[in-house]
Design brief:
The structure holds two protein chains of two kinds. Chain A has helices at residues 2-25, 60-69, 91-108, 115-130, 139-146, 152-172, 176-198, 202-210, 212-223, 228-231, 234-245, 277-295, and strands at residues 248-252, 257-259, 264-267, 270-274. Chain A is mainly α. In chain A, strand 2 (257-259) and strand 3 (264-267) form a beta hairpin. By secondary structure, chain B is an alpha+beta fold. Helices cover 23% and strands 44% of the residues of chain B. Chain B is built from one helix and eight strands; from the N terminus they run H-E-E-E-E-E-E-E-E. The longest helix of chain B has 34 residues, at 5-38. The mean pLDDT of chain B is 88. The chains are: A mainly alpha, B alpha+beta. At the A-B interface, helix 1, helix 6, helix 8, helix 9 and strand 3 of A face helix 1, strand 1, strand 2, strand 4 and strand 5 of B.
Chain lengths: 296, 145
């Protein structure tokens, strides 16, 4: 009888909680006004969100790949020093710098540097362990990464898998803020690496300017993070997002081409972001300011 | 209805327990779907390091903005449940033009996109109402090596 009573309360409670969870996840409708679509009453919900927003941040591996494609020589002074790890005492700084070191590993992997790959992997593993991530992600994958540190393709593939698993673990355990600090760290370091090469390389210069498209997401992410260790970094980061947002851009739609047999669509729209030399200098300086605040 | 303090405490305890069970169940369900979906990002692709997921019901839609960079081929995989073809996804450009919808291709579980010029797009997903009323929607993205 008592069990039945508890069960009834539990079922009733579960129904109530479901309703509460649903209502908590309701957010303002941000669905685009697609012609021909009825958007009335559509709500956006999500398990991963800041007030309903799912945030996408470009992978640092894409910048590392672009640097490799353009044969930009390695510069040791560009990466965050291994010795700096001991400076990062709180979770926020650890997570931000895990993102930084992850982007550095992707960059270093371009150059067959042997032991340095191992040093940066050890750093990532150490910080992940400090954050309680390492013991909660697939050991086989971590071991595979550890034993393939001389193979660039393996490093890129496995380190992206490492960060995906970390992201999954943190978001599933209500530690989304740490996941987002990792994303911000990775984004800043990839911008830093791209900005350095942008003075002499048009493709990297464009890539810096194209971060205009990501600046809004980063801004949304940053404005909702308020850990004391991040609050001192945030104004400089928001200023960087503002500089990127102000860049002039153009977009012209062109009909995509679909290949059903190969399951591929060719996106052919034209776009450009214009970055003057002065704007590039300002952005580069601001990246340095943000990065220094993170790694110091 | 008046409840004694003891009863209130017990009720509160049971409800909290139920909430935790429900939360864990939802997360476990999403984790399982995310792992399944990741299989579509095959070895020729590198994951972007994130999973995008949302609990959906009815005609709810989840969306996020992302940047697709020039010269890359991206693979977008969309799953809800541990079988394919359950989640509708659309790629919409900054002017709200629909660039792609897998609803036009039997709700394909994944699709590739070659990007001629860097562009900002919105990826929007919703459950296929013929197959499911509610569930966890997962999108994963990879780019070709």
């Amino acid at each position: 009888m008592r069990m039945n009573y508890n069960l009834t309360i539990c079922i009733a409670g579960a129904a109530m909680m479901l309703a509460v969870m649903q209502s908590c996840e309701e957010t303002t409708a941000t669905k685009p006004n697609v012609p021909g679509m009825d958007t009335t009453g559509v709500s956006t919900t999500g398990t991963i969100k800041f007030e309903g927003e799912i945030i996408s941040v470009p992978s640092p591996i894409q910048v590392a790949t672009l640097i490799q494609k353009n044969n930009i020589p390695f510069k040791q002074e560009l990466v965050n020093s291994v010795q700096n790890k001991s400076r990062y005492l709180n979770e926020t700084k650890k997570a931000l710098n895990l993102g930084i070191y992850g982007a550095d590993l992707a960059y270093i992997s371009n150059y067959n540097l042997g032991q340095i790959n191992n040093d940066y992997f050890d750093l990532m593993a150490g910080i992940s362990a400090d954050l309680g991530i390492l013991e909660n992600i697939d050991k086989k994958m971590v071991n595979k990464l550890n034993s393939n540190l001389n193979n660039r393709d393996s490093i890129l593939g496995l380190s992206s898998e490492f960060f995906r698993m970390a992201d999954r673990y943190l978001k599933s355990n209500e530690r989304t803020h740490l996941s987002n600090y990792i994303l911000i760290g990775g984004w800043i370091e990839s911008l830093h690496l791209a900005a350095d090469g942008s003075k002499s390389n048009e493709e990297l210069r464009s890539r810096v300017g194209e971060q205009k498209y990501s600046a809004e997401s980063i801004k949304n992410l940053a404005t909702r993070l308020d850990d004391p260790a991040f609050v001192v970094i945030k104004p400089a980061l928001l200023q960087l997002c503002e500089l990127l947002s102000q860049l002039e851009s153009t977009y012209t739609y062109r009909q995509p081409i679909n290949d059903q047999r190969e399951k591929i669509t060719y996106l052919r729209s034209q776009s450009s972001v214009v970055v003057s030399a002065e704007e590039l200098n300002q952005i580069t300086e601001q990246i340095k300011t943000v990065r220094n605040a993170i790694i110091e | 209805m008046l409840l004694s303090n003891n009863m209130k405490r017990r009720l509160s305890f049971i409800l909290t327990g139920c909430l935790l069970v429900l939360c864990n169940y939802s997360q476990a369900q999403c984790d399982s779907i995310a792992d399944y979906c990741q299989h579509h990002i095959t070895s020729e692709y590198i994951s972007d390091g994130q999973t995008y997921r949302a609990l959906l019901s009815g005609d709810d839609a989840a969306e996020f903005q992302t940047t697709l960079f020039k010269g890359n081929t991206y693979r977008v995989a969309a799953c809800s449940g541990n079988t394919d073809n359950n989640l509708i996804f659309k790629i919409v450009d900054q002017d709200k033009n629909i660039l792609f919808s897998n609803a036009d291709y039997s709700t394909a579980a994944y699709w590739d996109f070659f990007v001629e010029n860097t562009m900002s797009v919105t990826i929007e997903s919703m459950l296929d109402s013929n197959k499911s009323d509610s569930g966890c929607a997962v999108i994963v993205i990879g780019f070709r090596k």
